[in-house]
Design a protein that fits this description.
68% of the residues lie in helices and 7% in strands. By secondary structure, it is α+β, with helices and mostly antiparallel strands. Strands 1-2-4-3 form a 4-stranded mixed beta sheet.
């Protein structure tokens, strides 16, 4: 199937290499400053000891203070340089537990020429993503993790899940192989160093913003190009029509979960001290029974965008931009189909739901009980006020 190729895709390797070199130079500069600061601390201590032996107390004091200052700067920068990346979170999915799903990702990876996945994790999000992390924090072999949201597999069909995975594996096939993988690792590491440095030393933040403005802008540009390129490659595998349909479907289901399903779950906090519905256990049935396929998908998605959803992820192009690049209309699936969760993960769903429901309740328990007490107190005040009015 023919999918239009943008000239931006030819720019992407050069832009990625240039940004990777900037990141490598930045990391080397920080390393050099750390070594210089620690060497200065050692030299100052040696000078302080020499001044002490010579009976020069003022020189000894000045050298000791310089050693402390240099050691402090070196230690702070070393801590910034070694800030660990976020680690994968969720429930690890073993191959034996979901053989059909692993067969699917093996087929997609082989067809697209992508690197193999080292680990698969099931998360709570309505999202799928590929995460690459060095094995020992910032250094070592780079492992590839596939993060798959339980909410996502409840919201899409088997073919739509294939489209989602094809997009993620396209990132690995064309952007995260060989030197591209190393470059992405260096760029992410440099961004973490900048964030940690600005947080630890706020006085350098204005300087960093001014001097690295072009780097930040090009990082944003690279991210958007990579999304369009991954869409184009995935469309060659599954078809542009199915990919466009999947993008719309995920947008509609995310809106349903955020605006309808979760508010109904949380509304119980006004009448119950504990929820009677386990949100993740009931999510499959909730999506199947509660989601009403809109008669006008265009009106539904445009209403969503009017609420500012397009600005929520500035590193990703909007749905309209992605559909326009694929040259497909804004169209959702004509009918509901069995979910990917029921096909690939049916035996695992009770266990996964129990894990995520337990984690959700730990996070929500405090706010839930505060809401319940507030609603009970308000109901009690209204009841007492009604009784006084009746007695009068």
């Amino acid at each position: 199937m023919y999918v239009p190729r943008s000239r931006l895709f030819d720019l992407r390797p050069r832009l990625a290499m240039r940004l990777g070199m900037v990141a490598a130079l930045g990391l080397m500069a920080v390393c050099a400053v750390v070594l210089l600061a620690l060497s200065g601390a050692v030299f100052a201590l040696m000078h302080s000891w020499q001044s002490l032996n010579e009976g020069a107390p003022l020189t000894t004091l000045a050298s000791s203070l310089a050693a402390v200052l240099a050691a402090y700067v070196g230690a702070r920068l070393a801590a910034v340089l070694c800030v660990p990346p976020p680690v994968p979170e969720g429930v690890r999915l073993l191959r034996d537990a979901a053989p059909d799903f692993y067969q699917l990702i093996d087929q997609i990876a082989a067809h697209l020429g992508a690197d193999r996945i080292d680990r698969v994790w099931v998360t709570r999000d309505i999202n799928a993503s590929v995460m690459q992390r060095a094995r020992w924090g910032c250094v070592g072999r780079i492992d590839t993790h596939l993060m798959l949201g339980l909410s996502l597999v409840h919201s899409v069909s088997r073919s739509q899940l294939s489209a989602v995975l094809a997009h993620e594996f396209a990132h690995l096939a064309v952007q995260r192989r060989g030197l591209g993988k190393v470059g992405a690792h260096l760029r992410a590491w440099w961004l973490r160093v900048l964030d940690a440095a600005c947080e630890a030393m706020p006085m350098i933040e204005p300087l960093a913003d001014r001097s690295l403005r072009r780097f930040y802008r090009n990082m944003l540009r690279l991210s958007r190009i990579e999304e369009f390129e991954a869409d184009a490659m995935a469309a060659q595998f599954v078809g542009a029509g199915l990919l466009g349909e999947t993008l719309v479907e995920v947008t509609l289901k995310e809106r349903f979960l955020r605006q309808d399903y979760w508010p109904k779950v949380m509304a119980q906090s006004e009448v119950r001290a504990r929820p009677s519905i386990r949100p993740y256990r009931e999510m499959g049935l909730g999506v199947e029974a509660g989601f009403l396929r809109p008669s006008s998908v265009r009106a539904a998605t445009e209403a969503l965008f009017e609420e500012g959803a397009e600005d929520a992820f500035p590193f990703h192009p909007s749905l309209h931009e992605r559909l326009r690049a694929l040259r497909v209309p804004l169209r959702a699936a004509p009918a509901d189909r069995p979910s990917a969760a029921s096909h690939y993960f049916a035996p695992l769903l009770p266990t996964l739901a129990w894990v995520f429901d337990r984690a959700w309740w730990q996070d929500a328990r405090s706010g839930w009980r505060d809401q319940y007490r507030g609603a009970s107190d308000s109901k009690g005040r209204r009841s007492r006020s009604s009784d006084r009015t009746g007695s009068d």
